Amino acid sequence: MPSEFTGKHVTVAGLGVSGVPAAKVLHGLGAHVTVVNDGDDERARAQAAELEALGVTVRLGDGDTLPEGTELIVTAPGWKPTKPLFTAAGQAGVPVWGDVELAWRLRGLDGRKPAPWLAVTGTNGKTTTVQMLASILKAAGLRTAAVGNIGVSLLDAVTGEEEYDVLAVELSSYQLHWAPSLRAHSAAVLNLAPDHLDWHGSMEAYAADKGRIYEGNQVACVYNVDATDKPSTEDLVRAADVEEGCRAIGFTLGTPGPSQLGVVEGLLVDRAFVEDRQKNAQELAEVSDVNPPAPHNIANALAAAGLARAFGVSAAAVRDGLRAFTPDAHRIAHVADVDGVAYVDDSKATNTHATEASLAAYESIVWIAGGLAKGATFDELVTGAAKRLRGAVLIGADRALIREALARHAPEVPVVDLDQTDTGAMLQAVQEARRLARPGDTVLLAPACASMDMFTNYNQRGDAFAQAVRELGA
Fold first, then answer.
1. Which of 37, 177, 188, 319 could form a disulfide linkage to 222, CB 3.0–4.6 angstroms apart?
2. Distance between terminal CA atoms of the chain?
C-alpha cells in the first residue's frame, strides 16, 4: 500500500463513471475519502449508499465547498476549472488531479510492469481511432483494451486483475487538463476545431489542453498533415517537450513523405517505420479494408496504424486489425437502401467539424440536420457542402441557424423546415428526405448539433432515424 495515500484526506469531486471507481480505489488504498457532488437525485443517492456502505463519506447537493482537511482533490473530468471548489483548493495549496492522473500514478502498484499507453485525442474521431488501434494490437497478439474516455475506466484497467501488454487510451480535453504528469509511449492528436470553448475559455486554451497529450512522449508524436486549423496538430508537436529520440510522424490522405503514413493508389502505406524511408514504403492495407472507407475514417485508420507501428506492430497486423474492426453505431452507419437511395446514420456528428467530414464522404446528399447548436455557426460548413446538397430537412431547436446559413450560401437548395421538436419529428424528416431524394443520392443524418432538445442522446436520435428508415422500406 503506497504511503502517499495511506491516511491521506482525499476529496473526490463528482459521482458517476469516474468518481465512483476513484472513491473505491482510494478507499482501498487507505485514504480517508469524501465525495462531493452537485446533484442529489435518485441515481446519486443510490451511488452514495453504495459508497457509504464501504465507509466513504458522501456529501450530496454541495459540490462547491472544500471539505475541511482536504489534502488532494480527484475530480470528474467535466467539472470546470472555474468552480468555487477548485478556487478554494488553489488558495489552500491543494493539488487537483483527474481520474486519468490518478490512474497514471497507480500504474505498477502491485509490482507488475506497467503497460505502456498509446494515447489518442482530437475534436472528432477519438473513439473510432482507439477502437481501430485496439483491434490492430489484438491482431498482433498483444493483450490490450480500449480504455479512457471511451467509457471504460482507466482506473479499472491499471488496478484490475487482468494484465495488459499495452493500452489504447482515448483522452478528452477535460481529462488532459487534469493530467499534468501523464507521459505516453506515443500519442496522436487527430484534429482540432472549436469545441467545448465554454469550458476551456478560448480556442487557445482548448488546443493547449489537447497538446498536453504529447508531453513526454517516448517514441512518436502522431499528427495530422492535412489539418489547416491554427494551431495545427503539428504546431502542438513542435511545442511539446518530449523525450530525446521521439519522432514526429505525420498522416495524410495524400502521398506520404518521409516519416509519414498516407494513401497511394488505393493503399495505406508507411514511410515512417521502414528502413531508408527516403526511398522505401511499406504497404499496410487497402483502403477497402477500412470500414467505412470515408475520407475521415481513412485518416482515423492511418493515425491508429501510426501508433501501432510506433509500438512495433507488423504491417500484416495493421491490415488484419482494420479488417476485423466494426465501428460503433451511429457513426456514418449505412442503415438501408430504399428505392435506390442510401440512408446513412451519423447521429454522432454533433458538431460542425464532424459533420463537415461526414458530408465530404458523399457526392449527392439530402441532409437531415439540426438540434442544439451549442453556440456554433454554420456558414463555413454550408459553403463547403453546398455543391453536394440535393436538399435539406431541418429539425430541432436551433434549426433556424442552419436555415439562415443555407439561405445565404446555398439559396438554390430546397429546404424543409419542420416546426416541431418532439421525437416523432424524425419520421416526418425521413419522409420529407425521401421526397427530395433521387436514385443514387444519400439521405444523411449528420445533425451538426447536440440532441438533447428532442432526444435523450445521439444514440436515441440515431435509433429514431433507423426506425423511420425501416418503416419506409416496410
1. 188
2. 61
